[in-house]
Amino acid sequence: VYGLGTYVMVGVLGSELLATGANGKPLLTPVATTAQHIAGDAGKIIMTIAAVLAFFSVANAGILSASRYPLAMSRDRLIPPMFRDLKGGTPVAAICLTVALTVLCLVCFDPLKIAKLASAFQLFLFALGCLAVVIMRESRIESYDPGFRSPLYPWTQIIGMIGPLWLITMLGIWSILFIFGLVALGGAWYFCYAKGKVSNPGGAILHLFARLGERRSDGLERELRGILSEKGLRADDPFDIVVAQACVIDDEEADYEQIVHLAVDHITDQADVDRDLLLQHFLQSDRGVTPVSNGVALPHFRLHDLQRPILVMARALHGVNIAGNADDPEDSAVFAIFFLVSPDNDSGQHLRILANIAGQADTDTFISEWLAASNAQELKGIFMRTGNCITFRLKPGDKTAEWIDRAIKDIQLPDDCLIAAIHRRDSMIVPHGNTVLDENDRVTVIGESPGLKQLREQFEQGQDRPGFYAAEKGS
């Protein structure tokens, strides 16, 4: 669009008029002047009104996006904490600061010169952003899981660093001095105010040093895991399937070591993995356990020979203590433990599933709901609240009987639905096309709402809901 607009303006006005204008100075209103040449004064007025309206929307978007700078800096403790406070999900203080500084600059300084300095600032930020991409990539942090990876790395980033710096020199000496002044002011602010407050000094650079035998930053990994939780799952992440196929341990008397042995038994039943390696990893609390919040722990591991993620949920109604989890045994009582093992060839998916479990478990109401659940299906339903899962038992004498003694490949499911798990007596079966369903199997189907609604109507119509369960109601 910009290229087409420039082509039209050059074609109508000519490069000479755009460069010198009518009075020997560069033309500052090329769009309005082009409209005047094409449609007369009416065209100029219409284009001017459109430009003013567009300016309001751009200014509003710019202020709201620019307010994320003080918000992010406050979260990193580089500026006072008031700027990270949210009211109704809105960083009010950060927005007010941004608006105040914008108005101050427009009132007190020449707008044309401010535009030049602002351009230099944006170019400098772009160069720093390209440098940050290089550092993050080279740090090899597992928690770094971007949704998009730029092509031609690192040449794209190298050009992105050199190009803006060259353009800044073309803007003149004041722009160059402005950038040096910003760097000096930022350095002085860091050493005078922020150095003793930041929780993650060094960041990804320390991970780059770690590859050379130096220190690393655990704080950055925690921050990136938080970002993963906020970003949520990707469309192809099998979170619903992993939860639906999860085994559940619900033992009031077992201690943590016994729960670990039961969890490892479930995992080795589903995959050919080294049992001793899993036990060693999960029983070393400083390696495998990730505390999320009070009463929740997430032991996790990635294995080379694993084909799919496997989740085991464990509930301890009276709480268990994990050695080394806290100085005070009462503070280390854990009521919910989620053992997650995943293939080691997709660390990003492993971390997204882990972050999604952590995000849902890290709420004020989770533990009370977890302890109040009456069965395994309700425990799983806590993580599947969106209505994208149903579970029903195959019983002779009702409409579910039509699936008994049939292979899954021969069953016509609604679009966007699939059988995710089969619970048969005391075991969980991972379904395949040739899997034959038996009487009293408890079948979990996941999918989109229209398809699940069709299944509900198919099995509920004319029945008194025999053996039928919605994920959010349990089984």
What does this structure look like?
The protein has 475 residues and is of the alpha/beta class. The protein folds into three domains: 118 residues, no CATH class; 138 residues, Mannitol-specific EII, Chain A (3-Layer(aba) Sandwich), CATH 3.40.930; 82 residues, Regulator of K+ conductance, C-terminal domain (Alpha-Beta Plaits, 2-Layer Sandwich), CATH 3.30.70. It is built from 18 helices and eleven strands. The strands form two sheets. Strands 1, 2, 3, 4, 5 and 6 form a six-stranded mixed beta sheet that branches. A five-stranded antiparallel beta sheet has the order 9-8-10-7-11. β2 and β3 form a beta hairpin. The C terminus is likely disordered.
**What pattern of helices and strands is seen along the backbone?**
HHHHHHHHHHHEHHHEEEEEHHHEEEEHE
CATH homologous superfamily annotation of the largest domain = Mannitol-specific EII, Chain A
From the coordinates shown, what is the CATH architecture of the largest domain?
3-Layer(aba) Sandwich
How does the major sheet shape up? 6 strands, mixed
The radius of gyration is 30 Å
Task: Count up the helices.
Answer: 18
Number of domains: 3
| Alpha carbon gap, first and last residue | 56 Å
State the share of residues found in helices, binned by percent: 40-55%
The CATH first-level class of the largest domain comes to Alpha Beta
Give the CATH topology of the largest domain.
Mannitol-specific EII, Chain A
